[in-house]
Design brief:
Shape of chain A: globular
Largest interface: A-B, 35 and 41 residues
Shape of chain B: globular
Number of strands of chain A: 7
Mean pLDDT of chain A: 97
Oligomer: heterodimer
Number of helices of chain B: 10
Low-confidence stretches of chain B: none
Helix content of chain B: 10-25%
Helix content of chain A: 25-40%
Distance between the termini of chain B: 14 Å
Low-confidence stretches of chain A: none
Order of helices and strands of chain B: EHEEEEEEEEEEHHEHHHEEHEEEEHHEH
Distance between the termini of chain A: 30 Å
CATH topology of the largest domain in chain B: Naphthalene 1,2-dioxygenase Alpha Subunit, Chain A, domain 1
Largest sheet of chain A: 6 strands, mixed
Structural class of chain A: alpha+beta
Chain lengths: ~160, ~425
Amino acid sequence: MIATETRQAISDLYANYAYYIDADRLEEWLDFFTPDCVYKIIPRENAAAGLPLSVMLCENRNMLRDRVVSLREANIYNLHVDRHFISGLRIEAPENGVYPVQANYAVYQTTAEGVSMLFSVGAYDDKVTFVNGVPRFKEKIVVIDTAAIINLLATPL
Amino acid sequence: MRNAPDLSFPRADLSRIPYGVYHDQETYEREQELIFRGPTWSYLGHEAELPNPGDFLTTYVGETPVILNRAQDGALHAFVNRCAHRGSVVRREVRGNARTHTCIYHQWSYNQAGDLTGIPFRNGVKGKGGLATDFDTACHGLRKLKVQSLKGVVFGSFAETPEPLLDYLDAPVVAHLERLMHSPIRVLGYQRQFIRGNWKLYTDNLRDPYHGGLLHMFQIAFGIARLSNRGGAMMDRRHRHNISYTAEGTDSPDGAKAYEQTARGQAKHQLADHSLLDMRHEWKDGLTLTIMSIFPNVVFQQIRNSLAIRQIRPKGLDAFELHWTYYGYQNDDDEMTKLRLRQANFAGPAGLISMEDGEAIELVHRATARDREAHSIVEMGGRGPIHDQDHLVTDVPMRGFWTYYCELMGFTPGSNM
């Protein structure tokens, strides 16, 4: 049995996670991760076949920060707004204080000219830990069903 | 007859490409016939994906679905993935292992070479129904491709008597394939990118070293590849294929100066985690970035230690899938595998270096949809005869692609306008 407060705190983490990406506040979004976090976006076909290759792999929060800096300063990508829809949050009993959490996501993108499309569908397979009473992602594994990525993937899922 | 009035290649050296060639439906249909089913060799897959008898994978040659299959005797076969009976896709899986391929629709089945071997109720029931006795199964197998493998890389051709593969590829390409496939490989995984642009905008992109050091700011900022490095472009004798290469750490002072004058050239940033820039020197030639494009549908990438095969799969006139197969070598140590997986961040749909290509192609595709008679300019590195380049400020190899393209398609460059 997971305490209601714990459940609520984890649920808030996901709401904030989505909010800060969609609001393009990626620098603050980094704070939802532990310094030793793993952030990985892997196509379902690789995960299912036991193949290790991901589409994006950050082995700690600094690498995630580098991604954000690169987006801001080096990369050119499609002008768009992201909109996350996260549902079906499933929290498992903790192991050594780490909660396995799964959820579904859908991300719609809208162009600068206001045309929206479904960009990516998949599932999160995460590990959430509490740091000073606040939940943080220790592991964020994004398993994308939409392996055929439309145009390119710049902003996080 | 070939040059529609609004689709002309006005210069014999192919330094002008008509926008219409990326947007004309009839041209696209003819490409499927004259290029992908013509005298060319297309990439089908790698033998490392089919280690065991019965292993198969489904792939594409142009827009035609194809099965690549290793038979029980170890031989490789390739045939069109479309049932002879009613035209249904026979194999729906991306990969698998089987002795026979059975269409779901009426359960016609084929062996590992694509021959038709089973037709349910062929003789009807109680003398009624079924096929006529003169129906010849030997005439109704799946259409076969010629298959040849070079260092594990499998090519297929629809031509009855294609040019020998080694002649088609020619010495520089063969040598570079041998360089990349120097020992048995292990597939690390796949990536897919669905780009909403004509497939030839990508083959152009690959033969244009000039953009690499201007569009892909990440590699410029971190010194992975700059236009001012030692580099160039090597081609086969007919300039169909191209190998662009760069040796990093060979920058010149005037290169740095030229970058200072570009719009984004001053960007200075530091990585918080430098492990992304870790690299092992694997080849004695010192080349750290090589992109080899083989006409018409495949690219071999070496970005530092990140190795991948990119297959171009046209999906109609206005889109293509880029299918990436990442690999390492079977004798890689764990640290090397980790390095390759980390460096996979450089390329692919989310690549720190390469993500811009998708956007650039979509932008060109959108903006060239009108004014089919207008032309893009291909003059970097000079006009006239096509030859190898010993620098990177060039898009000459693009003109090599278009020369062979026009030959296959029956366009006569320079004859119109």
